[in-house]
Amino acid sequence: MKMNQLVLPLVLALAATLATTGCKHGPTKITQLYGQKPPPIQGEKQPETVTSMQPITTEPLPIATEKVQPPGTYPTAEIDLTKYDQDRAALAAHTVHFKFDSSTVQNNEQANIASVAQALASDMNAKLLIEGHCDERGTEEYNRSLGERRALALREALQKAGVDSLRVKTISYGKDKPADPAHDDAAWTKNRRGEFILLHPKAGV
Amino acid sequence: MKKLTLNFLTIGLVAVAMLGTTRAQDVVLPPITKDTEQFGQKPVLISLEGISGEAAEVLKFDLFVQGFNFVAPDAAQYQISGSSAGDVSGRVMDRLAKKVMLSRSYNGASVRRQAHAFADDIVAAIQNKKGIGQTKIAFKSQAPSGNGEIYVADFDGHGAQAVTTDSAIVAKPSWVPGKLAVYYTSYARGNPDIFFHSLSSGQRRVIAGYSGLNTSAAVSPDGSKVAMILSKSGSPNVWVCNADGSNLKRLTTGLEDSSPTWSNDGQWICFATKIAERRRLAKVSVNGGKIQTLNTAGVSNPTEPDWSPDGKWIAFTRQAGDFDICVMSADGTVPPVVLVAGQNPSWAPNSRTLVFNHEIGHRQVLSVLDVFTKQYKDCLRANGSNSQPAWAK
After folding, report:
1. Which chain B residues are closer than 8 Å to A173 by Cβ?
2. Which residues in chain A have Cβ-Cβ distances shorter than 8 Å to B191?
3. pLDDT of residue B75
4. CB distance B279–A145 less than 8 Å?
5. Which of B186, B247, B255, B180 is nearest to B214 (CA)?
6. Considering only A56-65, A158-167, B24-33, B374-383, which range has the smallest mean pLDDT?
7. Which pLDDT value is given to residue B357?
8. pTM exceeds 0.90 for this model
9. Number of A–B residue contacts, CB under 8 Å
10. Residue B53 pLDDT
């Protein structure tokens, strides 16, 4: 992770340099920074500034551009949902569940967080919508805030896993959209949840 | 929307008509009674003769939820008699003082409106208070899908009319004091946004549509400001802005705040928050600064505070397994009193009656409660599950 954080600015610098020099001496156009094997770098044809560059990893590049702040202090993302197709199936298996009246992401949910982070890292055009939900044992507006807090806690967990929080939009449904409409422990356990919806840019938008 | 305007117009017409038919010489003003309102007080015993049908139903509902109870004439402190054949007319006799306190006849509009007007006159004559018989509420009606609409209705649930036609999730209507206008939350645009909606023109616009949560609008007593919950800075907190959405200012920085409500002087905002994983009520100055927690010792998990229009009381919901309506004094001198099962209390203009919702067969039903006698009656039900009532003031 640390190395990726070091490499990213260099990759960006390379892209910027190539763009300003019109790619005259570049090997190929660099259009895809993420999720693909970068083009081979041939020392002779590179501008001098990059000859001392470290080897570029071929792994996807999760980015963590923001320094760590306390929970609850990351401004929400401006993402216009009308410009995206919502893929509810892709990450449906990674829905995270919460304890009663809690917005703490449990340790046993880390695998789900890692999977969601991986999906976002492998498709840098995608963005993410997190829905926060509650069980019915809480008042309506209290639950609307708790649902938002749950979604924001998941967003913060994803950020720790390298996801740029500005790619992540949150929405709270409080107790208005239960996964299970029953009124028992089993239903409540299912309903205290955060769902991940992958957002793909609509064609032509 | 046109219909609603007409209804409000007819109230005005009834009022004018009443002026014309009141026989002023029959009206004897009651002695000014001292303010003896307290929890657990006995209802004022009254009797009703000669008035039947819809008019009697209205009188019984209106007076019951303002601290009166109906008994036989020989057991009543005040005897109400009159007629509801055609128009409503009636009088109130003080049995102890052997005096006629009120004698009046009504015409225009409907029997229902005339009876509400008579109920208000009875409250004014006996309690020396402005009655709530001709007041309105707004509320949320929700289908099992989660979608719903904002409605307005008479305070007893009659004459309900949909304000919205979005088939979207809606929440927390709040009236502009003295105006035919409400704020509410709607997911109609795909995000929980706060709308301002003029009921007279039908026009509406988003006053808070920031990224994240925009909800729980509460209008200041003078109508100039709106408090609300926004998460745009990364957590659901209390913010305040001008009525048109301008001049936005953040007031709290906790991790999880909800349900702001204004003090009657417009200087404080009480809200629900979470401190060290415990739900608490707190207040903050409208100018910002440190939050002050309220002492709600003895009741668990307080949320949904609603400050009474006279500034004395804060009603809220506690959760101990199920939900209960509680009331405490805003200055902390009267500790919380648990009243009845329910949620979402909203004060009437009289600072004595609350509208709230409670569960019947997994559906929410609106109900009206007199806090001092704990008497309550269910409102007429609109479609679906009815909740988050807001009393127009």
Report:
1. 146, 169
2. 81, 171
3. 93
4. no
5. B186
6. B24-33
7. 98
8. no
9. 115
10. 97
CATH topology of domain B2-29+44-127: Double Stranded RNA Binding Domain (3.30.160)
CB B376 within 8 A of CB B66: no
**And the tokens for A49?**
């500034």
Low-confidence ranges of chain B (pLDDT < 50): 1-35
Identify the contact set of chain A against chain B, taking CB-CB distances under 8 A. Answer: 71-79, 81-82, 102-103, 137-142, 144-146, 148-149, 152, 169-174, 176-177, 181, 183
Q: Which of A85, A141, A188, A199 to mutate to test the interface with B (most CBs of B within 10 A)?
A: A141
The answer on pLDDT for A19 being more than 60 is no
Closest CA to B109 of B51, B50, B55: B55
- Contact list in B for residue A174 (CB cut-off 8 A) is 171
Q: How far apart are CA B283 and CA A157, in angstroms?
A: 31
Backbone angles phi, psi at B92, to 5 degrees: -120, 125
Q: Confidence band (pLDDT; 50, 70, 90) for A34?
A: very low
Q: Which CATH architecture has domain B136-391?
A: 6 Propeller (2.120)
Instruction: List CB contacts (< 8 A) between A133 and chain B.
Output: none
Residues of B in contact with A146 (CB under 8 A): 256
pLDDT for A74 equals 82
Least confident of A18-32, A117-131, B299-313: A18-32
List of domains in chain A: 2-50 (no CATH), 81-201 (3.30.1330.60)
Q: What whole-number percentage of chain B has pLDDT above 70? A: 91
**Per this entry, what is the length of chain B?**
393
Task: Answer whether residue A45 shows pLDDT above 50.
Answer: no
How many helices (DSSP H) and strands (DSSP E) are in chain A?
4, 5
User: Which tokens go with A46?
Assistant: 């590179």
* CB-CB neighbors (< 8 A) of B257 in chain A: 145
Q: What angle do CA B265, B269, B274 make, to 5 degrees?
A: 160
pLDDT of residue A204: 74
Cβ contact, residue pair B279, A169, below 8 Å? no
ipTM of the complex: 0.89
Tell me which chain A residue has its CA closest to the CA of residue B229.
A145
Tokens describing residue B288: 């910002």
Contact A141 B192 (CB under 8 A): no
Of A73, A82, A176, the CB nearest to B146: A176
Which pair of structure tokens corresponds to residue B276? 């060290």
**B323 Cα to chain A: minimum distance (Å):** 8
Chain A interface mutation, best of B216, B255, B316, highest count of A Cβ atoms under 10 Å: B255
Q: Tell which residue, B328, B253, B267, has the closest CA to residue B296.
A: B328
In the numeric block, the tokens 């819809």 are attached to B54
Residues of A in contact with B344 (CB under 8 A): 139-140
Residues of chain B with CATH 3.30.160: 2-29+44-127
